[in-house]
Structures are given as C-alpha cells and as structure tokens.
Amino acid sequence: MSKKHINTAFDVIVIGAGPAGYSSAIRCAQLGLKTACIDNWHNKNGKGNLGGTYLNAGCVASIALLESAKIYQSITHKLKTHGLQAEAVTLDIALMMQRKNNIVDALSKQIADSFATYKIDCIKAEAKLLNERRVEITPIDQSAVAILEAKHIILASGSSPIDSPCTPIDNEFIIDSTMALNLDAVPKRLAIIGAGVIGLELASIWNRLGAETILLEAQDTFLSLTDQQIALEAYRIYTEQGLELRLGTRVISAKKGNKKVTVEYQDNDGTHALRVDKLIVASGRKPNSENLASAEADLLLDENGYVHVDENCRTNLPGVYAIGDLTLLGPMIAHKGIEEGLFVAEQIGGRHNPINYDLLPSVIFTEPEIAWVGQSEQALRAMGESIKIGTYSLNATARAQATGKTEGMVKIIAHAETDALLGVHIIGTQASEMIAEAVLAMEFSASSEDLARTIHAHPTLAKALHGAAIALKNKT
Ligand code: NAD
C-alpha cells in the first residue's frame, strides 16, 4: 500500500466522532482552529456514520427502540384502562428497526452538516497516532494510506464491549450489545450476562416486546453504585414487570447447539445450566486503545488499556489529549465525553473552563428511568457525613396519577447542619429530565430549603422533587 504525505497541516486532529470527538471538533472549529476529525465507524455496506457508539449502537438506538417497545406494551396491556380497544396488534420488528435506523441516520447527518458548516475535514478512516504531531490514516475503503500533521491531537476513540473467551460472540446466538439493538425477531427466551446499565436497558426493550428475559449478574448487590433505596425500588419494579434478576450468579461458559445456547453459571448452590434462544453479553466495556497508537509513539496506558491523563485530559505526550470513554477521569457516559470535548477544545483555544466531575448526572434509560446526581446515602454514611433525607412518592403527584405512571420516588439528601444538597436520586418516568433541576441547584450550591422555596408548576412530575425538598424542610 502506498504512503503519501499530505501537506495540509491542521491545528487540531480529532480521532473519533462520537459525542466526545464531534463536540470537540466542532468547538475547535468555532474557535477558529483548522480541524480534521477522523472516524472509522461504518455499517455492513461500508457506509460511514458519524456519532460513534452512543448514536449508532448505544443510547440513542436503545431509547428509540425502548419507545417503540413501550408503545407496543401500552397497546397490548394498558389500553383497556383508558377505555380503548385495539384488535390484531402486530409486531413488525423490521419496521421498528428501520425507524430506529432512520433516527440514527438523521442525527448522524446533523453532525455531518455541522462539520460542513464549520469546515471541518471529516475523514472516514482508521487513524493511528505515530507521535505527538503525526497521525497515519487508512481509509475505510482501504485506499492509499496517508499521514496528517497537527499542532494538537485529541484522542476520542471511545470503547467497545468486552468479549470473554468463555462466552464467544458468534453474532447469531451469542451476541453483544451492538447486535442486540439489531435483532430481526423477538427471542422467545433471552438471557443477558450483566445487570449493569446496558443489560438493564436491553432487557427493558426485549422483555416489553415479549421475550422471557433472565439477567445473570455476578454481584450480590443490585446496582451497587446506585443509592441502595432506589436500587431496591428498581429491583421490585423490574421484577414485577417480568424481568428475572438472578444476582450472585457468575456465568462461566456458553455453548451453542441445536439452535439454542446453553449457559453455564455458578451461584452459592453450585453450577447450573440454562437453555435460551439468545444470549446477550453485556458484561462491561473496554477503551478502544489497542491499535490507537504505534509503539514508537509511547502513549502511556494503564494495565486495562485506559489512556493515562492528568486533570486537564492531557496525556504523557505534549499536545496530545484523551477524552471520553478512553480515560478513567469519570464514568463512560456520553455527556462526560461531550464536556471533556469542549473543555479540551477551549484549552487549545486559550481558555480554561474545568469540568465539575462531582456533578455529572447518571441516567439509566429503562422504564421507569433512574437518574441521580451527587452522593448516595450509603457513600455519605460510609464517609461519616451528618445527613438528613427527604423522600416523595411519584404516586402522590397529580401528573403521575393522570398519566398512569405512578411508580417511583424522589430522594433528596442534604447536610444535616448546613442544609447543602449532597445527592438527589430519582426513580420514575422522566427521571432523566427531572434530574436537570437537581444538577442546576447543586451547581449553584443550593440548599434543600432553596428547592423547597422555589415555585414549581402544578401539576408536574417535578412536584415530586419539590415534595421531597418540602419533606426535608418540615423535618427541620
Ligand atoms: P457495567 O460494568 O455497568 O455492568 C456489567 C455487569 O456485568 C457488572 O455488574 C458485572 O458484575 C457483570 N458481569 C461481568 N461478568 C459477568 C459474568 N461472567 N457473569 C455475570 N455477570 C457478570 O457495564 P455495562 O452495562 O456493559 O456498561 C458499560 C459502560 O457503559 C458503563 O460504564 C455504563 O455506565 C456505560 N453506559 C452508560 C449508559 C447510560 O449512561 N445510560 C448506557 C450504556 C452504557
């Protein structure tokens, strides 16, 4: 393959066009920097699509399918209570997937349009860092390899599912989370390894569409990083919805045969086998750093492949930054990547607006949703903090009653003496939207009394947040 030297030098090259990469490239260009963004995502037909995992095979694809699944379930199970009746409801998975793909394509095109507006060179290729100034690119169509140069390089190549040799992905019976968003039929019996964020989000889709769904989770504690009162409530609701959650269950092997998968797992009672039609492996993600840099580049990684960075997202190579899922600076969530993308672009542009990692909201897009910001009750108690807690059930709000989505609660934790907000935890419909108010309040160092004294429109779901703050105020 020929190597040619492209004379065009850039101010910034961004590797990866997921949320971290595309937001960074756009901000760099807005700040007047000559920017290129290189991305290797492509579909079966070799067509490149900007947006990374988050858009093509993650959050957006997942919430698009969940919306279809919720409608299907409402029509098949909940219409009668509204005095409505529908007959012969059919499920067209191909059309459902097409709708999801159309949404993904439209959002991907928006990114491409922004790149065009800001004159960002968008290169569909595999990129490899050669040193702190040079990047080698191999176009997706395998045409000539080229070398690009830039004053600054931003690594944003994201993450991919961890594959274990015990549960080898065959893309037919044993599949990963990407494939699980592209099935052509509803499996009759489905097992998912991992009741983490991805496992739960996928379970919420396929269970609603009719799959008997079993989650196999190695940990004894359900959603161990989530506030445990909320996690307990989630466990109860998911189980009532029909999800089978087997905790303390470590999968040790999976074998296909006779168009089924036999999953072998261990728990306190010994070793067991489970036969299912499909197995989804959702046991975690790893950073995409394997072929990101040549050995000569000397990019420092940790033993798990995360790129080593300082608090300003700078790697050990001068002028080279790493953002998003590639680093351990925060959790693998899209909005963390976006904020880091903007932060690094602004640093290069001579500004310094650091990120408040303590106030990154977390969301699990199931139905009901789970969302939180700040510390959990168990973490605060472990730190010996003096705290007070206010809770409010969604059931007590008129809006939840009117919509029939009454499950869940809001929990506010404040400092017992200063009343400063320390954590807000929500389980309920639209929790992902409600949490924004709590993030803003905490960003402005509000007390729980500030929330209680803020007028909330009535009747809204946000009244549950207000209610939890008032419950706290009434305690003082
Ligand atoms: P995770 O680490 O959240 O969950 C994986 C689970 O699999 C763990 O609980 C682990 O104990 C379990 N597990 C691992 N091996 C197992 C085995 N052999 N048998 C049984 N259980 C096993 O990982 P994930 O759900 O794959 O998500 C990866 C990352 O992506 C996370 O950081 C997550 O926050 C992020 N993500 C976020 C969102 C969102 O913000 N809504 C959506 C998708 C992914």
Describe the structure.
With 476 residues, the protein is an alpha/beta fold. The protein folds into 3 domains: 3-161 and 286-357, FAD/NAD(P)-binding domain (3-Layer(bba) Sandwich), CATH 3.50.50.60; 174-283, 3-Layer(bba) Sandwich (FAD/NAD(P)-binding domain), CATH 3.50.50.60; 368-473, Enolase-like, domain 1 (2-Layer Sandwich). The protein is 31% helix and 27% strand. It has helices at residues 19-30, 52-56, 59-78, 93-117, 197-208, 228-241, 334-348, 377-382, 398-403, 431-443, 448-453, 462-473, and strands spanning 3-15, 35-39, 121-129, 134-139, 145-155, 159-161, 174-176, 189-193, 212-216, 244-246, 250-257, 260-267, 270-276, 278-281, 285-287, 320-322, 362-364, 369-374, 387-393, 408-415, 421-428. Strands 1-2-3-4-5 form a 5-stranded mixed β-barrel. Strands 7-14-8-9-10 form a 5-stranded parallel sheet. A hairpin with a 2-residue loop joins strand 11 and strand 12. Helix 1 (19-30) runs parallel beside helix 7 (334-348). It is globular and about 65 Å long. The model has no long low-confidence stretch (mean pLDDT 95). Bound molecules: nicotinamide-adenine-dinucleotide. The site of nicotinamide-adenine-dinucleotide (NAD) has 25 residues, from helix 5, strand 11 and strand 17.
